[in-house]
Prior knowledge:
The complex is a heterodimer.
Chain A: H1 7-31, H2 39-61, H3 72-88, H4 93-111
Helix pairs in contact in A: 3-4
Chain B: H1 2-6, H2 28-44, H3 49-67, H4 72-81, H5 85-96, H6 101-111, H7 115-126, H8 133-140, H9 145-154, H10 163-185, H11 194-215, H12 219-238, H13 243-266, H14 268-274
Amino acid sequence: MNGEWWWAYVVIAVAGWLATDIWRWLGVLTGNRLDEDSEALYWVRAVATALVMAVTAKLIVFPAGTLADAPLWLRVGAAGVGFAAFLLAGQRVGVAVVTSTLLLGAGLYWLD
Amino acid sequence: MQCRAHCPALFVCASPHTLCHPGMSMSPSSDTRLTLFWFLSGMRGITSLPALILMTSFVGFSAFAFESGITRGEAIFMTISIWALPAKMILVGMMASGAHIAACFLAVTLSSIRMMPMVASIVPEMRTEKTPTWVLLLLSHFVAITAWVFAIQRLKDVPHEHRTTFFAGFGITLTLTNTLIVAVCYGVVETFPPVVSGALFMLTPVYFLASIWATARQTVVKLAFVIGVIAGPVMAVLEPDFDVLYAGIGGGTLAYLIDRFWMRKRRPAVEAGDAS
C-alpha cells in the first residue's frame, strides 16, 4: 500500500491537513465564546503571542536548511541589531527586515 | 406581503424602507458592491510587505520540497491543504525519512496547537452576531502566522460587518498565490547560493519579530512576546519534545499573571486606555 502514488496524498490529508485544521476549528469554537476585551481573551492573546514568538525565536536559534550553516552569533546578532534599528527608526518593520538580512548576507559573504 | 403592493419591483424601489427589506438598510445591489469592495481591499493585501516576504519563503519551500524528493503534485496539495509553513516543513522532513503516518500526524499536530489560540484571539474581532459558524470554520483554514499578523493589524480599520469578507479576500488570495508559486517554482530553483538562501530564511523570523512587536497594543502582549522569545530556545534545550508548548502555554500564562497582578495594579490608567 505504501508504494501506491496516492498513499502520499492520504498521508498529507490525514497527517497534514486534518492535523492542522483540527486546531483551527477548535480555535473557532473557543473564540466564538469569547467576548472582545474579556479577561479570557487577554490570556488567549498572551498564549498565542508566546507560542508564535517561541516558534520564531527557534527559527533563528535552531534553524532548518541553509541558515543552519551560519554561526549562531551571526544569526542572533543580525536579528538583534535589526530589531534595535527597528525600535530606533520609530518601529518601521521594513528597517528591521532590510538591516537583518543585509547583516546576515554580509556576514555569510565575509566568512566564506 | 404588503411589500409587493407598496413596491412591485422589489429591487429598484426608490425609497428602500427597512420595513420592506427587513435587515437591509441599503438596496441589494449596493450591498453586493460593498461586499465586493471589501473583498478586493483584502485581496490588495497581496502586495503588502508581509505577503511579499511570505512569497519568498514559499520559493524557498519549493526548493526544499524538491530536494527532499516530494513530487510537484504533493507539494501543491500540501500548500493548499496545510497552508502553515512550519507544519509543512515538518511533514516534508518526516515523509522524506519514511516515517509512519501516525508519527507524522503526531509531529505535525503537536507543532500546530498554536493555531487554536491564534484563531481564538481573532475570531471575537472578526465575527458579528449574525456570522454563521461555518463561515468562520471555513475561513480559519487560511489562518497562519502571516494572515494572523495581517488580521491584527488591519481588521480594526474595517467596519465590523465586512471583516470576514475582508479577511476572506486576503487569506484566499494569499493561499492561492503561494500555491501557484510552488507549482511554478518547483524544480526551477534547485539550489540558491548559500548567501542568498540563508538571507531568504532570515526574512520570515525577522519580519515576525518586528511586525508582532509593532502591532502589540496591550502590555500583556509585549510581555508574552519577550517571554516567548527567551523561553522558546531555552525550552528547546531543556525539553526538546514539547518546547514550544511549554514556552507558549507556560510563557503566555506567566505574561498574563504578571500583567494582571502586577502591571495593571501599578498603572491602571494606562491599561484602561490600551484596552480600547
